[in-house]
TrEMBL record:
PROSITE patterns: ABC_TRANSPORTER_1, ABC_TRANSPORTER_2
Designated name of the protein: Phosphonate ABC transporter ATP-binding protein
Similarity comment text for this entry: Belongs to the ABC transporter superfamily. Macrolide exporter (TC 3.A.1.122) family.
Gene Ontology molecular function: ATP binding; ATP hydrolysis activity; transmembrane transporter activity
Pfam family, one: ABC_tran
InterPro entries: AAA+_ATPase, ABC_transporter-like_ATP-bd, ABC_transporter-like_CS, ABC_transpr_LolD-like, MacB-like_ATP-bd, P-loop_NTPase
PANTHER family: ABC TRANSPORTER ATP-BINDING PROTEIN YTRE, IMPORT ATP-BINDING PROTEIN
Start and end residues of each ABC transporter domain: 5-225
Gene Ontology CC terms: membrane protein complex; plasma membrane
Keywords carried by this UniProt record: ATP-binding, Cell inner membrane, Cell membrane, Membrane, Nucleotide-binding, Transport
Length: 225
């Protein structure tokens, strides 16, 4: 069977005037469905570039990205948008919630292409799953950082994605709230969602099945628990 994610010799360079930065330098790895992978490495080593490519927000210059055996480069922009909407959930360090919407509405944003009844049912279910039912009518501003990140995770889980891409999801949280967020990601992986999480925390990386270490656009090490 094809691996869920298959990355082969993937490269991405940025050019600013005369200067070229090799953000990703021919990296290769595979991720199985339902695997929880932590991505570590110093600032500037290419972690965000890799997450953006995995989430179809950026395109590599060379190499191959196969999702369930299908070469992503052959898909049209419309297909990629559909794939992203239905199959990928994003979680960011700074939550990226919409202040003008309440918690339930922020989660509903991930489901706008569904009918209203289905949407409401799914929002209720995912708020319950993330322990936010009693906060449904609050605005993000009225919540703690930990609660806001739980809303972001609820939004990421709403469409029942196959893949969650999390960019330092615990970076702005204290240790108790960070641990709660990691538990939600672990639960998602246990339920079959593949999770790729950038983190600077060795402790949080231990929650993952595997840690991939990057340096200067390359993979320099892997630890499997
Ligand atoms: P990380 O997420 O590990 O901090 P990034 O993927 O953000 O690393 O960046 C990798 C390298 O690519 C860095 O040297 C960064 O300066 C460069 N880079 C990232 N985005 C851009 C961009 N839009 N334009 C130019 N250089 C960029």
């Amino acid at each position: 069977m094809d691996p869920f994610l298959q990355i082969s010799s993937l490269s991405r360079a940025y050019r600013t005037g005369e200067v070229e930065t090799q953000a990703l330098d021919a990296i290769s790895f595979e991720v199985a469905a339902g695997e929880f992978v932590a991505l570590m490495g110093p600032s500037g080593c290419g972690k965000s570039t890799l997450l953006n490519i995995l989430g179809f927000l950026d395109t590599p210059d060379a190499g191959s990205y196969r999702l369930r055996g299908e070469e992503v480069a052959t898909l049209s922009d419309t297909q990629l948008t559909q794939l992203r909407r239905a199959h990928v959930g994003f979680v960011f360090q700074n939550f990226n919630l919409i202040d003008e919407l309440n918690v339930a509405e922020n989660v509903e944003v991930a489901l706008l292409y569904r009918d209203v009844d289905g949407r409401r049912r799914r929002v209720d279910a995912v708020l319950e799953q993330t322990g936010l039912t009693h906060r449904a009518r609050h605005r993000p501003r009225q919540l703690s950082g930990g609660q806001q990140q739980r809303v972001a995770i609820a939004r990421a889980l709403a469409a029942k994605p196959d893949l969650i891409l999390a960019d330092e999801p615990t970076g702005n949280l204290d240790s108790a709230n960070g641990a709660a967020v990691i538990d939600l990601l672990k639960d998602a992986a246990a339920a079959g969602t593949t999770v790729v999480m950038v983190t600077h925390s060795a402790l949080h990386a231990e929650a993952a099945d595997r840690t991939i270490r990057m340096l200067d656009g390359r993979i320099v090490g892997e630890t499997r628990l």
